[in-house]
Amino acid sequence: MVGKKLVRKALNNNQKINNQSNSLKNKFILKNKSEIKLIMFDYDGTIMDTFLLSCHVYNRIFKEFNIEKEFTKRQFQELFETDWREALKKLNLITKEQWDRCGEIYNEHTADYEDDFRCYPHIEEILEQLHKKYILAIVSNGNKKNIASKLKKCNLLQYFDYISGYEQGEKPSPKPLLKCMNKLNIKPEQSIYIGDMDGDIVAGKAAKVNTVIAVTYGYHHHTRLQDADVIIHKPEELLNIFM
Fold first, then answer.
1. This model's pTM is above 0.90
2. Which residues of 134-143 are buried (b: 16+ CB within 10 A; e: fewer)?
């Protein structure tokens, strides 16, 4: 019932977008909408709310490497990068040994918070509706096996026809998006990519997808997302765009 109410609300009412900045783009008309077949999603910061978890991981990294920093949310938004090694370079962590240890810290910390993984509000109802009309996929720089496990735990795995992690290539390279479209035999002009970081936008544009949608509720501040074709502020706005 909640899902049906949400869909009716999104379909019958134009969502009022928070215009905190006049620079935010609020374009909701897709090019050749009737031809769209595939919606590709990033995972962290788009489907799954893992921002605070990542902040905790980096605080552990600060402690491990004696980095005396206390970041605000805004500072973490500037630190995080699509390629996590680029974020570590900002902290002067540049060797393979340091990166390997940071990877171990991430794995240890996420295991400690296994029960705290949550998707964003209303994501399940939204995916349920989108799946009726479109093919859905995940294209992430994360671990494919872990992503599938978390999606299953949140009752979301059933909605995705394809999942890729770093094993299939890493953004901001367009390669993982191109592999996804090739695997599903769908053209770029029939595809959409949705992500929360500027590297997602770079990857989507390079893959020449129909439209790149950026979300402001994830990892990057809206000031880093201005090159997206569409910017949204909450998941429910997807129904306004696609349904």
1. no
2. bbbbbbbbbb
